[in-house]
């Protein structure tokens, strides 16, 4: 049994070391986002294959309450737009973002009553997947 306890401690130490390394890697990847995106834009490419990985820029829509709008005002605007399913007990930004992504895919417009109340933005990032 003591061997299992020692193995548990050994694996916990390894995991913590790996977690710390992943944190450093993620930090460096974040720093490389803008230069790599600029490179793609300058080269006029949407994707490229590098060392067995396909790299491309992807954009995601995110919706949230505008910073200068009270929660009550944002909820009233969503209710007016008949989107009150995203308001209980607070604004469900994940569901609301998904709604706007689907609306965009279907060519639907953002209801005008949400203008200035709900902020819908697209965020871009470079991703890499195995080719």
Quick one: biggest sheet?
A: 3 strands, antiparallel
Strand content: 15-25%
Number of domains: 2
Task: Tell me how many strands there are.
Answer: 3
Number of helices: 3
Q: Stretches where pLDDT falls below 50 for ≥5 residues?
A: none
First-to-last CA distance: 45 Å
Shape category: flat
Oligomeric category: single chain
Q: Looking across the biggest beta sheet, what order are the strands in?
A: 1-2-3
**Cα-based radius of gyration, to the nearest Å:** 22 Å
- Indicate the structural class: alpha+beta
Q: Determine the mean pLDDT.
A: 94
Secondary-structure element order, as H and E?
HEEHHE
Residue share in helices? 40-55%
Record the SSE blueprint.
Blueprint: H1 2-43, E1 47-50, E2 53-65, H2 71-80, H3 93-105, E3 118-130
Antiparallel strand pairs: 1-2, 2-3
Question: What does this molecule look like?
Answer:
With 131 residues, the protein is α+β, with helices and mostly antiparallel strands. It folds into 2 domains: 2-45; 54-127, no CATH class. Helix content is 50%, strand content 23%. The chain is built from 3 helices and 3 strands; from the N terminus they run H-E-E-H-H-E. It has helices at residues 2-43, 71-80, 93-105; strands spanning 47-50, 53-65, 118-130. Strands 1-2-3 form a 3-stranded antiparallel sheet. A hairpin with a 2-residue loop joins strand 1 (47-50) and strand 2 (53-65). The radius of gyration is 22 Å and the shape is flat. The N and C termini lie far apart (45 Å). The mean pLDDT is 94.
Structural descriptors:
three-stranded antiparallel sheet; 131 residues; 3 strands; alpha+beta; 2 domains
């Amino acid at each position: 049994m003591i061997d299992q306890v020692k193995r548990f401690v050994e694996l916990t130490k390894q995991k913590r070391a790996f977690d710390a390394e992943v944190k450093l890697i993620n930090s460096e990847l974040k720093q490389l986002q803008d230069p790599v995106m600029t490179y793609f834009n300058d080269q006029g490419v949407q994707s490229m294959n590098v060392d067995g990985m396909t790299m491309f820029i992807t954009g995601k829509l995110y919706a949230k309450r505008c910073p200068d709008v009270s929660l009550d005002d944002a909820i009233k605007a969503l209710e007016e737009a008949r989107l009150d399913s995203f308001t209980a007990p607070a604004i469900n930004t994940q569901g609301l973002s998904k709604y706007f992504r689907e609306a965009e895919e279907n060519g639907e417009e953002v209801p005008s009553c949400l203008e200035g109340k709900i902020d819908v933005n697209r965020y871009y990032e470079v991703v890499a997947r195995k080719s």
